[in-house]
Amino acid sequence: MASGSVAVVGAGALGGWTALWMRRGGADVILLDAAEPGHARSSSGGETRLLRCGYGTAVEFSALAWQAARLWAQEEPALGGDIWRRNGVLWLFRSRADGYAAATEQALTRLQVPFCRLDAAEVQRRWPVFRAQPLECALLEPEAGFLQARRACRGVQERFLREGGQWRLATARPGRGLGGRLLELELSPAEHLGADAFVFACGPWLPKLFPGVPQAAVRVTRQEVHTFAVPPDRPEWTADRMPCWIDYNSGIWYGVPAGESRGFKIGDHRPGPAFDPDHGDRTPSAAGLAAARAFLRQSFPALRDAALVGAEVCQYELAPQDRPFCLRHPEWSNVWLVGGGSGHGFKLGPALGAAAAAQVLAG
Ligand SMILES: Cc1cc2nc3c(=O)[nH]c(=O)nc-3n(C[C@H](O)[C@H](O)[C@H](O)COP(=O)(O)OP(=O)(O)OC[C@H]3O[C@@H](n4cnc5c(N)ncnc54)[C@H](O)[C@@H]3O)c2cc1C
Fold this sequence. Notes:
binds flavin-adenine dinucleotide, alpha+beta, eight-stranded mixed sheet, D-Amino Acid Oxidase, Chain A, domain 2, single chain, 363 residues
């Protein structure tokens, strides 16, 4: 297979990395997408995405995230640099009662991922912007932080092209199959593209393309993210001075500090209502803004009246148990479906892409 041709549909975090690793594995790879990598309607299409390794008892995800972190570090210069900001991720545990904090500590210790436990007084001393009461403990992952998501998607595509990959801006869907194999993609306008193997890394569009494949039936949910202005001349609100954070018992709200002309970003990790990535209304809702402001009032009182400077509606593509997948199509043996980032898949891109590429190249 390594010398064969592969068409990868979808140039988001998962498709881009899969294409790059397959190219490096010796395949003749063409990457296609209906729009530019990291475009506004794709799940990878935000400015920033958190990179953290804590996952409670899901040690396999901690291991994957740590592997991905090392790959981001290794590949960052080749992607144009300035992609991974290691300002740390601070987990705030208002209560440790459900065991998630302890399980995270155990997993990170076992995997030798750097972290430290802080008490409320230490959090308050180091970052007075956080409301540190009540707080049973905090865990700081000092080597975690955030990825410049859109920039990273473009960087992966550019690297892929420099290493001999081909790129095509086109909408694609499975075309003719024969004898248990897919022969070609149908591109629009009417055109066909053949290959030895096909990877569909189409994020939230997978269920539309493969309605008959239950394993790829990711649940697509509407997610809102808000960005607020921070007080001027106050570096303590920026990534130079402040880590990203996850307020575990809040539901879960998470955020990225201000910087590089960005405001202070906050998002609610709980899955929203069902959403259509093509036709869903991307107008931010009054209820979403009210919830964000209520969270700010409670957890960052100094931002209670902060000006809203941005709001985005994006979508999660949730797989069962939030587990990303690379699965072979049940009827076509040369077709793989890669997806299910489930609100945490961006950072895993290089590791998941490497695993998917190995699987496809091994046939
Ligand atoms: C608000 C929000 C916050 C998130 N926060 C984090 C975080 O902090 N950390 C983290 O690790 N992850 C996070 N995630 C999750 C992560 O961003 C996604 O899981 C990941 O980006 C999914 O990548 P993907 O490549 O599978 O899908 P996508 O990025 O959606 O890419 C799929 C691509 O396929 C293309 N495509 C689809 N159908 C076709 C077709 N027929 N023909 C051609 N092209 C097609 C699309 O145009 C698109 O570019 C977040 C997601 C959201 C929405």
